[in-house]
């Protein structure tokens, strides 16, 4: 299903905004007028790019209507009370030109058991999309392509309230209805500009690789603040945690940097998936765009692969030690793979830090293979390590520590330093490579499928050896070594 529905209060009236989404507050200074003109000029250019023209809208309507009719005929043959609706950004008029997602939801009555719903849903999906294939979210659905449009046919329960949901997709029709009532043409246009802005800065998408702003969240924010520019002005001054409650539910507290209470379900934070980095990223670029509007902020970065010569220049300049664990990527969808990679990255970096190999920065990449990439400030340690015991006056613990090491021929001490016993003992690993190639690697917290892949086979790359990663991960390494907000 499209990101629009992976996750608004009424805004200002359309008449209170100019074409750039700017609140009209009366006459200002010449400099503010010039700044506003520059802002509006850039926004107008963006709108020319992202607004679908009438021909594109008509083609989408024709395909969506045909598929909805076909799905409804198939659904009502199976269940008299079934119905079909179109949801998502193409139903709400907030889709960006060139985005070609049509989401068709088949709603079944609540008394249907889940197994039957899934069976009926797949049958309707295959009838609607004869060349489609099955995919799985919380339950299976059918995905296919019709005349260049990406189409999902998804079964769900028809409910009176989003608080009664049986699965996450049951909320989506409520989201669509809520926003249809609140989005006028100007707000919808501002939503498209906002989505393109978020794409340009790399913060759009609620998938667990990006952990950014979903389409639904973006629409709610634009509605709540009353346009693109008011949203940027507000975000520039956010002091997280920021809480928005469009329908004043006032029932739940969440521990997230951005909290947007779902208007249709007060127990849910629509922004829960947003990472602190992406909330901060929006703030950074909101300030930058307001200060100096430019098209570069709405153009997604497409970095060129980093060549070997430049990678070596970075390594020479930084004088750190890169290490990488490379293995066959588990056969998982991204929303399953990336949380496991993140868990494994956290576990491995903690394991390195605990053994004195100070982690400077780290990242994880995946394609055909997967890589946990760690840059170390310290890669080699002495053969001995200091081990502090308890203060001598803590008799029971102190005597236990002393007796444990008193007859150890490989330990120095115990001796007294200050008021406590200390021993210097042999270090288990003197290099990061030793640790990463040992069985102790499997003592750290790893994602289950990552651990299985590592148990099968993996390689450790240190220093200049990481240049072999460039063929597969040249773009990721450029992004790593040339970071931006």
Q: Topology of this protein?
A:
Blueprint lengths: L29 H21 L3 H25 L4 E5 L1 H4 L8 E8 L5 H15 L4 E4 L3 E7 L2 E9 L14 H9 L4 H16 L14 H11 L2 H9 L5 E3 L13 E5 L2 E5 L6 H16 L16 H11 L2 E8 L5 H21 L4 E8 L2 E8 L7 E8 L3 H12 L5 E6 L2 E7 L5 H5 L11 H9 L2 E4 L7 H12 L4
Parallel strand pairs: 2-5, 6-7
Antiparallel strand pairs: 1-2, 3-4, 4-5, 7-8, 9-11, 9-15, 10-11, 12-14, 13-14
Terminal residue distance: 29 Å
| Element pattern in H and E | HHEHEHEEEHHHHEEEHHEHEEEHEEHHEH
Average pLDDT, rounded to a whole number, is 92
Based on helices, strands and strand pairing, what is the structural class?
alpha+beta
Q: From the alpha-carbon coordinates, what is the Rg to the nearest angstrom?
A: 28 Å
For the record, what CATH class of the largest domain applies? Answer: Mainly Alpha
Work out the oligomeric state of the chains in this entry. Answer: single chain
Number of helices: 15
Question: What is the 3D form?
Answer: globular
Uncertain spans: 7-27
CATH topology of the largest domain: Poly(a)-polymerase, middle domain
Helical residue percent band: 40-55%
- The CATH homologous superfamily of the largest domain: CCA tRNA nucleotidyltransferase, domain 2
Strand content: 15-25%
GO biological process, one term: tRNA 3'-terminal CCA addition
Domain tRNA nucleotidyltransferase substrate binding: 190-297
Binding site for Mg(2+): 101, 103, 152
Catalytic activity: a tRNA with a 3' CCA end + 2 CTP + ATP = a tRNA with a 3' CCACCA end + 3 diphosphate; a tRNA precursor + 2 CTP + ATP = a tRNA with a 3' CCA end + 3 diphosphate
